[in-house]
Amino acid sequence: MTSLDAAGAAEDPAEGPAPRHRRMAGEQPVVLDALLADLIPGGRPVAREEAVTLLRRHLGRIQHRVQQAFEAHEVSGLAAARWLASLTDVVMAGIHAYTEATLPKAAGDKPWALVATGGYGRGVLAPYSDIDLLFLTDSGMGPRGRQAVEFMLYLLWDLGLKVGHATRSRADCLVDAKADATVLTALLDARPIAGEEAIFHRFEAAFRAARAEWGLKPFLAAKRAERQQRHARYGESPFQVEPHVKEGRGGLRDLQTLYWLARYAFNVQRMPELVGPESPGGGLLVAQEARAIRRAWDFFWTVRFHLHLVTGRAEERLTFDLQPVVGARMGYTRHGLQDGVERFMKHFFLMVRDVARYTRILEPAIERASLGPPAVVPASDKALTAAGFALADGKVIAAPGHDFTIDPVLMLRIFRMARDRGLDIHPLAFRAIVRHARHVVRLRGEREASAEFLDLLSGRDPATWLRLLNEAGLISRLLPDWQRIVGLMQFDTYHVFTVDEHTIEAVGVLAALERGDLAEVAPVASELVGQLQSRRALYVAVLLHDIAKGRGGDHSELGAELAQTICPMLGMTPEETETVSWLVLHHLLISQTAFKRDIEDPKTILDIAEVVQSPERLRLLLVLTVADMRAVGPKVWNGWKATLLRELYWRVAEVLAGGLSVPERDVRVARAKEAAALLLADRPKEEVAAFLDLGYPGYWLSFDPETHARHAAMIREAKEAGAPLTVRTRVLEARAVTEVTVYCTDHPGLFSKIAGALAVAGASIVDARIHTMTDGMALDTFWVQDAQGGAFDAPHRLARLAVLIEQALSGRLKLREEIRKLKREPARLRAVTVPPRVVIDNHASNTHTVIEVNGRDRPGLLHDVTAAISDQGLQIASAHITTYGVRAVDVFYVKDVFGLKVENERKLASLRRALEAALEAAERPGGGGVARRAAAEPA
Q: Which terms does the UniProt entry file under GO BP (predicted)?
């Protein structure tokens, strides 16, 4: 076999030498002959400049041919990668022959071989991947050889190729491979392209002998450490919604690692060689598993090929802007209620799960098989033995005579036994569970199986065991509705995980609350979780809270209906079933109220109390809300959200306890004034009386006495100094916000100008209270954060903030021009659409019209929206600002100039049109912007 024939027959680790595309068969020799005829016509090499032009033209042709066939769906990504590597071999062989013909011969020079390594060595190549080459000798490179290497590399660089290269002798290769697992891995994939092929074969024999001498253990340890670092960098969870196709968990690199381990341990060239009892390792795979690995390999290569072609670079991350493009190119279209991109990503995550599953099964099995079969010994633990289990390598395995297919409840019981004893499940047992998971269908509604599952759900470290059950496919078999959320992503920038992974994460957060691990960040929920009477119902509610995602309609309502069926099947009592269903139905109630409504408004509190009715349900709902929010993503939770949830909880709890948190308005105002006067007792009575006359009732009900006292001092100082504008800032570290208070003469558009100045300063408004005093002065309070969701606390930024507010109010700051200069959102986020929506509600408050504005977030959006409200002649009393990824949800409590609700239909229609016009700017090209803050709507 010639070197070109060997390259053409490059074996794919997932499948091996499959029939290539018809265009590839017998193509290399013909293409090479044509290339050599151009480069070395009549045996005389052309000038170097002409050679570069010819090679560049040839390279462009082959790349275009492969791309054209791939985009016409004539070849899959894997076949295209093989074809591109095969044709690239021709270019390399042509460059080698041209180099040999160009450089003068030298007597006694040492022969060498041109060898492909790394991914190129495996015979697969993505359009913009590096080309890894090894210039291999028996015992060192001669002078002409070194000149040839330099000549070839400069040619390759002139062609614009990214080349990784090394020059080594056979002995150097072995030394470097032993010292560096990266070199060893690259050499595992080595194959000859041109030059003295016998040199490569001598190296290959020596390398195989050296691996046998070194043993698998060092290489396995190195690959595990490398994988751990890789996952830490690209995401521990395989279900992150912007996955890294190559390096992420469950991606191509994890598949390649399995191949490398099998290649190292058993000298196999492809994964199907591990199928069957006569195969190396005694049958580590069955044919179905080998096919699944091959499908994943082909799928990921197709995705990767599209990524490279779409971006024109070696892009490996499947970002939001690329997902719909790649999904459409692969033929995913809308089906029923699911968009094409969501169907594509679900398929992607199912493939990822398969790879993660086979990594868990196959890697330790390869390690074990290289050492021989394990010794299965009875456990000294009598309960473990009585349950049908034994130990192998110190891990739990089914005892001889106990078959998962005959008694499928063993597949659930083994997880509980392993958990209770702090043991791992043996890879052979886990492999058997995966292979026989379909038998768990027989356990639906079966009492013992339900008890085992609920024990795993609500016992120690439930997230770990639920992930294993999910990975093995057992939850879907036990709860058929679960299958619909496995791998299901929501195409937005807010949710970090797929729905099933988010749910399991939420169960883990609930367990952490019970352990007290989150006492500092969620003190109220951590305290309440120990007081609950319906603990098991809460765990099931967390498991089911998003079970109806992706079905269309309100997932809370649909999920509540499903809970009515699922809970009895799990053996739960009617009371537990009703509690779970109610929690699923209302699992967004507290968060939506805390972040979108004025919790100082008595009606807000009374409305929630009417829905909740029970202190126990309120406790359950708060704990569920905290678990749900913290499971959305790492940047979702912050001190400000914790404060809002905590304050809302205590207000509602006091009402449910029969307290007076919502007494008559006049009584509450009088109490607030009395408390403020008490703190101002050292001031002259006339001054205190004047201050108490300044505020309308809404002002006195919006702040605590200490804040009232600070306001009194600020107003006094402003009057004494004759200052037309006073800006005060106060960092509230416990709440992760900075309070900005502005005192000046009131005028239309004041809120909008301050909001614009804050946007220019880089501050994100999360809440606001707007008050006009009886003397016509405005006392407006804003709570702001930085872009990372923390307090806006840098001294120089606080100083600039005050200056910008002054400049905006005086007209010296051109707000619209400055806002246009602000940083726009990353291009990858623009693919996520946010339909503008305006909701006007005259029932949420007894005293105000409540406006809810939904739209695409961008710098200055709040400025534009509040300007539109002011232009309609309305006064903003309070604002509640939230962002969910790129979606802004802003709520305003407003009155007309007479202090009344806006109820005139013509006025409401005009208001709606003005707000929709302000929102539409965010959806125009170039209108998108960075989110004002990282926010967190529960999933």
A: regulation of nitrogen utilization
